[in-house]
Automatic annotation (TrEMBL):
NCBIfam families: phnA. SUPFAM superfamilies: Prokaryotic SH3-related domain, Zinc beta-ribbon. It comes from the Bacteria. This is Alkylphosphonate utilization protein. Residues 42-109 form the Protein YjdM C-terminal domain. Belongs to the YjdM family. It comes from Emcibacter nanhaiensis. Residues 3-32 form the Protein YjdM N-terminal domain. InterPro entries: YjdM, YjdM_C, YjdM_N.
């Protein structure tokens, strides 16, 4: 018997298969394990997959909340870190400091 992954909502180990779906009997959550792996992938504005340590370029002028400064188009950001949440990239930008960016406003720099 194959080992099924725990429920992504409540972490229950009692998930069972129903066709292509997995179902949690404790919280009632249903999910497709093939799509669940795809959901955690962070992509840039053109669809490239991002990972920790990548270098990206900002594709739009971005106002910095709580400040009068702006991150200009073409700003290169090195060594990004992917995080959960609305702003899925944590980084440090020269002249501004630590901040969070949305992946939809960056493009991966190809090595």
């Amino acid at each position: 018997m194959s080992e099924l992954p725990p429920c992504p909502k409540c972490n229950s180990p009692y998930a069972y298969e129903d066709g292509a779906l997995l179902i949690c009997p404790e919280c009632g959550h249903e999910w497709n394990p093939a799509q669940a792996a795809e959901e955690n992938v962070v992509r840039d504005s053109v669809g490239n997959i991002l990972s920790d340590g990548d270098t990206v370029t900002v594709i739009k002028d971005l106002k910095v909340k709580g400040s009068s400064s702006t991150v200009k188009v073409g700003t290169k950001v090195k060594n990004i870190r992917l995080v959960e949440g609305d702003h899925d990239i944590d980084c440090k930008i020269d002249g501004i400091g630590s901040m969070g960016l949305k992946s939809e406003f960056v493009r991966k720099v190809q090595d």
